[in-house]
């Protein structure tokens, strides 16, 4: 069985969960391919039998960029399941994923939500604090993600042997109205430009390596100007904090993530290419 795992990740948390899911499917004998969603990338998904689609929750929903990118893909009426990471309040994230993928996919086999605040540094404990580990993706979460492959394959087999309306409706996240209203307010471009999008470059630190623009930014919000300095389009920024966590020079400042540290997850799971 060919499994495609598509995910959006700013700082590597969701990428790690995607990688754990992949390990679980591998262990069950599946071929697995991972795709990190990023503006401008198109994927041919016609050769896959099963899809896993994941995203972090931002303001109680998936980032608008993610819905836009997913809407352009064709899931060829194949079975799928959805997963998200969040700081504990995913809101409608699984529901958003479900609806956007379901448009072109087949039966939904389930949803997985992992709690771990991996990218908002302003109010989470700093690296080194004992409390910091509570905010991480734990070994327990890793085990859950790895075990998911088996569960999903069992559900798929059940569906294939006895496809029924009952199973089709077996797993369906329910939306919450107040989170829709809340996220509607806080995730539009003008709001991002006024909050999470705000970035500054410390020109004494930046060495113009251009990694932030070329490798990490999923939304195309960073360009390199003629003189080599990175330039931010704060309206395009989705606030994922990838750039400032990635920057090898620690040269990027963000309004909502001031105490950031160099972080292992993105190096392991995003920068591996
Ligand atoms: C702009 C922004 C908004 C967020 N909003 C929420 C939220 O509403 N609820 C929540 O539980 N976590 C929220 N988070 C935390 C992320 O969902 C969490 O850190 C996630 O693991 C990040 O995944 P990543 O490392 O793959 O980017 C938010 C993070 C950011 C950057
Ligand atoms: S990654 Fe950091 S050092 Fe490299 S260009 Fe971007 S801001 Fe400058
Ligand atoms: S500018 Fe930075 S925080 Fe904004 S979307 Fe790009 S990588 Fe993420």
Give a quick summary of the entry.
This protein is an alpha/beta fold. 34% of the residues lie in helices and 17% in strands.
Describe this structure in words.
The chain is an alpha/beta fold. The protein has 2 domains: 175 residues, Flavodoxin domain (Rossmann fold, 3-Layer(aba) Sandwich); 84 residues, 2-Layer Sandwich (Alpha-Beta Plaits). It is 34% helix and 17% strand. Strands 2-1-3-4-5 form a 5-stranded parallel β-sheet, with helices on both faces. A two-stranded antiparallel sheet has the order 6-9. Strands 7-8 form a two-stranded antiparallel sheet. The longest helix is centred in the middle third of the chain and has 23 residues. The structure holds flavin mononucleotide (FMN) and iron/sulfur cluster (SF4) (2 copies). Flavin mononucleotide binds next to helix 1 and strand 4.
> What small molecules are bound in this structure?
flavin mononucleotide, iron/sulfur cluster
- The CATH class of the largest domain, by name, is Alpha Beta
The second-level CATH architecture of the largest domain is 3-Layer(aba) Sandwich
SSE string, helix = H, strand = E? EHEEHEHEHHHHEHEEHEH
Helix count? 10
> Radius of gyration in whole Å, from Cα?
19 Å
Q: Provide the β-strand percentage band.
A: 15-25%
Distance between the amino and carboxyl termini: 25 Å
Q: What's the number of structural domains?
A: 2
User: CATH homologous superfamily of the largest domain - what is it?
Assistant: Flavodoxin domain
Q: What strand line-up does the widest sheet have? A: 2-1-3-4-5
